[in-house]
Amino acid sequence: MPRKANGRADKHRDEDRMPGEAPESNAHAANGQPTANGMPMTAAPAAGTDMSSGGSPAADMAGGGSPAANMSGGTPSGLGMSGGGSPAGAGMSGGGTAGGAGMSGATGDGRAETPSRRQCGVMDVHRRLLSTSPEYAAARSALETATIDYVSRQERFTGIARIPVVVHVVWNTSAQNISQAQIDSQIDVLNRDYRATNPDTSIVPGVFSGLIADAQVEFFLATQDPNGNPTNGVTRTQTSVATFTTDDKVKATATGGIDPWPTNKYLNIWVCQLGGGLLGYAQFPGGPAATDGVVILHSGFGTNGTAAAPFDLGRTTTHEVGHFFNLLHIWGDDGSGCSGSDECADTPNAAGPNFGVPTFPHVTCSNGPNGDLFYDYMDYTDDRGMVMFTNDQVTRMQATIDTVRKDLPVFDTARATPEPAGSVVSWGANRLDAFVLGTDLAMYHKWWDGSAWGPSVAGYEYQGGICMSAPEVASWAPNRLDAFVLGTDRALYHKWWDGASWNGYEYLGGICMSPPRLATWGPDRLDAFVLGTDRALYHKWWDGSSWNGYEYLGGICMSPPEVVAWGPDRLDAFVLGTDNAVYHKWWDGSSWNGYEYLGGVCASPPRVVAWGPNRLDMFVIGTDSALYHKWWDGSAWNGWEYMGGICTTAPTVVSWGSDRLDVFLLGTDSALYHKWWDGSAWGPSLTGYEYMGGICTDEPRVVSWDTNRLDVFVTGTDKQLYHKWWDGSAWGPSVTGYEALGGVISDFKVTIPESPAAIGQGVGI
Ligand SMILES: [Zn+2]
């Protein structure tokens, strides 16, 4: 219970302005009166007045010839979601399990010739190039000097370097023509390993755990080919060559492989059959452009399909890409001696490679008591034994990315997937902006700047208006906020922070029967979705210079729209149809597709999150009040997966990193509950939930401003805003405690007067 759990019920009320504070507290009138004019929304217009002025609306949104048939067709109600074997009353605190196929990958054939221990060909290539190319020797020497300089200046790049990848599948047997799912699984592994979000770092002993470092590098399959055309980032080439080796023949069309894409702009990964027990090889930076990249044995690539134990966790590619970014083997490649170095001060001097999964400690080269750091990706252990890079390794890689590979990365202002819109958003590290409605239905704002709450812990900035929907805020760049609400005329209004001041409210027309849902897929781009009076979906967008729409998207929708953007010029919209099944419509960059029927009989609006390009995870509450999950893996929909619980609100879902999901719900006791997907399993279990205390009166709002960071906001029974946070290792102020943030909040999500209850509130909740 937010209020009493902390005993903070009476703390506040003396600071600044609170939403909906009674007139006597307008000692703070300097901020403007709730009824101040100059705001389009306070006019309380005669119905229809505003609407006709905007040149838009009523007509636009009511007409359209929308076929009800589009969305209600062909679905037997009752299918899919009401099953699952949930014992009513089991509640959300349990850890029991139920059916559910789970997300673990399948296995396939093509496992012949799987090496039994790791062997990497990077030094073969290195020695060959040293002996044949004076330019290579000079480039290696220059890079080492630059790296030492970089390290001595203690430089690090800021933000995340995103690396475009092209995977060249070169196959001789059909089994070697690996699936898209196997390729996707490898990209996922790279994104976990290079952000240190892989859960198996748990195997690292405490004496080494402080060395684990986030490389701040992410990878994505290229979306543009060298000619600027759309691509899926994969090439497929049939070859007559049965087996390749370190001679680089796979890297040229003329020798049975395929030429690289420009190696300064793409990380080229060739996947093929390698002989001689070779798992893969790389070319260090400084080598010939025509052969730059890494080569991986298909059965050591990704985590499904032909991937075979003990090299079926994708770590061969993590290792080889480490070489590509100038990392050396951790023992220094001097055979079994103690004189070689990997040029990293924080990796213990080690004699030779470690194989299999060694037992800690393994002492060599007088490196006791802790011994070799065989948990490192740059050793030779099995996939399940290598789980980390160190701080100095990360610095070496970053030096490479900032110098010889500086044309390769794309630095995003934000992260891999666009920041979702909502009542609480973050436009940068350690930054939070929360928007609420006061009891006067004006909008109020408070923010965390990294060190303190503004305008004060319990205070709020008054933003005016009389709002008929919870603030929906998008941020497409640092220090930029775009807030959307409905006015009393049910038209859409827009207010924005341009980095220096607030602007608006701007009138955007329409007669909306749902709260607006916003998405942004790039700089200066906003996409708003609402339901019209005909319950069809409508779309309005800001293209950087003007507003467009409303565009009619059809349907008869029984829930507010859910919209996500997982990449540039990509939108995915979800609604419930009249059968309470989920329907999906998507913009692919050139046209709208759908509605696609996704089944289910839902008792809540769908909630969807994208943790990376071409990934969608959808959550709904079923008619049994349990949570259900369905996901798009890049090539197909999976699920429904039954996740237990007796839920009294729609789920709130966020993702702070690749293959990471966090779901928050209220239980029948109005407490907050949490579950999470860590990339391999659901915690605390498939159908179990973490109890987080509180007595909450509205859906939680959750935002993440960085890897392994969550900020949760709820409303208490006293209508104050409450906050709790995950800092990467623990919940603050405690697992069941909350920070009181003042205010008397009308609601996060306001229902729309006179609208069908099902529209504003979701169905059946
Ligand atoms: Zn190697």
From TrEMBL:
Which ranges are annotated Basic and acidic residues under compositional bias? 7-19
Q: Where is the Peptidase M43 pregnancy-associated plasma-A domain?
A: 259-401
Q: What is this protein called?
A: Repeat uncharacterized protein DUF346
Keywords on record: Disulfide bond, Hydrolase, Metal-binding, Metalloprotease, Protease, Signal, Zinc
The keyword Signal is assigned to this record: yes
List the GO biological process terms: proteolysis
Organism in which the protein naturally occurs: Kribbella jejuensis
Question: Which Pfam family, giving just one, matches this sequence?
Answer: DUF8189
Query: Which stretches are tagged as biased composition: Gly residues?
Result: 75-108
**Chain segments annotated as coiled-coil in the UniProt record:** none
The family this protein is said to belong to? Belongs to the peptidase M43B family.
Question: Which Gene3D superfamilies does this entry report, sorted A to Z?
Answer: Collagenase (Catalytic Domain), Fucose-specific lectin
